[in-house]
Amino acid sequence: MTDTSEARSADDAARAPRQSRLRRLMRYLPLIAPVLLWTVPCWVLLHAGQHWPLPVTPAGTALFVLGLIGMPLAMKRGHGKRQQDWAAIVGDTLLGGSWVLFTWSVLLGVLLRLALAVAGVGDGQERARIVTWAVLGTVAVLLTWGYAEARRVPRVRRLDVQLPRLGAGLDGTRVVLITDTHYGPLDRARWSARVCETVNTLEADLVCHTGDIADGTAERRRAQAAPLATVRAAWAKVYVTGNHEYYSEAQGWVDLMDELGWEPLRNRHLLLERGGDILVVAGVDDVTAESSGLAGHRAHLAGALAGADPELPVLLLAHQPKFIDRAAEGGVDLQLSGHTHGGQIWPFHHLVHLDQPALAGLSRHGTRTLLYTSRGTGFWGPPFRVFAPSEITLLVLRSPQRAPSP
Questions:
Q1: Is 272 helix (H, G, I), strand (E, B) or coil?
Q2: Do the Cβ atoms of 283 and 318 come closer than 8 Å?
Q3: Mean pLDDT over residues 247-265, rounded?
């Protein structure tokens, strides 16, 4: 018992500095980020040795200043108290575009300029202009491709997952995971319907939605969420809240999902039985629920598993991957999560890793517990996905006791 306590204390001590660094970063990020996102590209493209003709430099600088001022104002108007969708679209698009522009201005502004210098290509001004056109071309291609990736129906990712405690009767159970649909300012009702049609082709036993349904209240985004009622599952459709529900009257989303035929697993479980074997399917509220102030909302694993036979295998729905520490301590066999979006726009995944233990895919935590982290079905905010494709996930659960194939 002492060894376990010491190990837990060591893990907590290791996590504390990471969480402290993240809190400090997030405190200053809203002030620092817009300045960096707009001033660095402005310098690289217009002022770092190019010597553009007189109208180009001041006009280009004015555009960057306009972006620096306009992006935060549009985002505040779109995501603040006014909730104006047109402003959110403008602000989010500027945010995504400036992030990609900043990233490639830094990379090409350093690496390409260095490579050209080493190769002896041109003088300083010629190299600077090559860098400028390379940055603009790369950004244009990535934003066009990233927009198409964000708006497309996600590809299906199929994965066999072996659970040592799963009984032979449950071998081959088909679990479909969608998450982070983020219905929002851009109307995606048709996209939502096509996603649901794709899910129905997978002939799932169990369909799971692990939260972040939308940005906005259930009343406001009802039309986009309505196609979720058409999803079919042989056994059940289950749902847990994500952090974005708690920005938008979470109880309204719980009620709407129930109305659409989904079973909200709010710190409780259901039993999936087949062939004489049983799987516990549990869910918890998002880890941000308790701080939301909504009565009865919190992430409570003990409550979710109350009354379940501890010898039975457990499939847990929890929106954020970082719940995995509690899941592993609670003896969960497989946790399904979303939240990370796989980073959504490269290289944002480095910031995601400051807060989450996994970015995407299957990972092991402890001796028993597996975590599957989806890159998400939709997108948040900026309508781009760059090197982080969305997904609909089909997990086929496998038992070590299954009969061998003939």
A1: strand
A2: yes
A3: 96
